[in-house]
From TrEMBL:
It holds the Pfam family TonB_dep_Rec_b-barrel. One of its GO terms (molecular function) is siderophore uptake transmembrane transporter activity. The keyword Transmembrane applies. It is found in: Cell outer membrane. Gene3D superfamilies: TonB-dependent receptor, beta-barrel domain. It comes from the Bacteria. This is TonB-dependent receptor. Keywords: Cell outer membrane, Membrane, Receptor, Signal, TonB box, Transmembrane, Transmembrane beta strand, Transport. GO terms for biological process: siderophore transmembrane transport. Its main location: membrane.
Amino acid sequence: INNVSYGFNNNIASAYSEADVFFSKNLALKAGLRLEYSELFKELTLSPRVSLAYKTSTKSQVSVAYGNFYQNPNNNILKFEQDLNAQETRHYILNYQLNKNGKIFRAEAFYKDYQNLIKYDTEYADFTSNYNNLGSGYATGIDLFWRDNKSIKNLDYWISYSFLDSERDYENYPVQAVPSFVNTHNLSVVTKYWIETWKSQLGLSYGFASGRTYTNPNETGFLNQKTKSYNNLSFNWAYLISQQKILYFSVNNVLGLKNINGYQYADLPDSNGIYASNALRPAADQFFFLGFFWTISEKGTDNQLDNL
């Protein structure tokens, strides 16, 4: 029996340079260049990155950015095949942010182009697989964020939302498809309210995520269905015993919703030709936590209330 060694050596040499250019007090440019050589791939990559920011007012700015990034294939791939190239991504970003009178607003639109992604022709990557760099994909979307701790006395709240449209043709995908880790819509709402007479901070948070793709072998197609959406309403209560001592209670998923992360199917069909399935769910639908926080500092006034 011949012993097979799945190892590799990859020495990488790199250099990076960055410069800041101020055209005026309102307009600035940051440019960078990364040069990298991989001994394993015998490949030299050049990655330019640049961002341009303009202050639209004393409290706001808009910026655009471009970046080119390279990433080596995963070690679990390289241990079987080294005749590959680095994977490449190009980022295009447009950003606006405002910070004024206790209010913060951020909006960002982006597009990412993926090239030279690793593909293989077996169910799992192993020594029998044939590998290449013919994979590709994209991701485009928007991120929105709003926070306000001034409009209503003792109330701090923030809302974040993201939209993501992404498809990839990589790994063992037979066609370009929406990966199973992608949520098209994500929403998060967090509120904190301080009640002086109770010496307490009450918090309520809500999280939503649209369903993820999965492959149902009882239907035709690849990644042909989606899970139901994820919903989570949680509550917490922080009681200020003294300036540096806090008694904290929280409950995750107050409504006890039965969220599903995905499905696992049998390898073989039953006598009726149906693949049996099991829902992949969290270990517990609800989680309760009771804790005590004691902050020790020189001033004797610091605590963890802002972090709870």
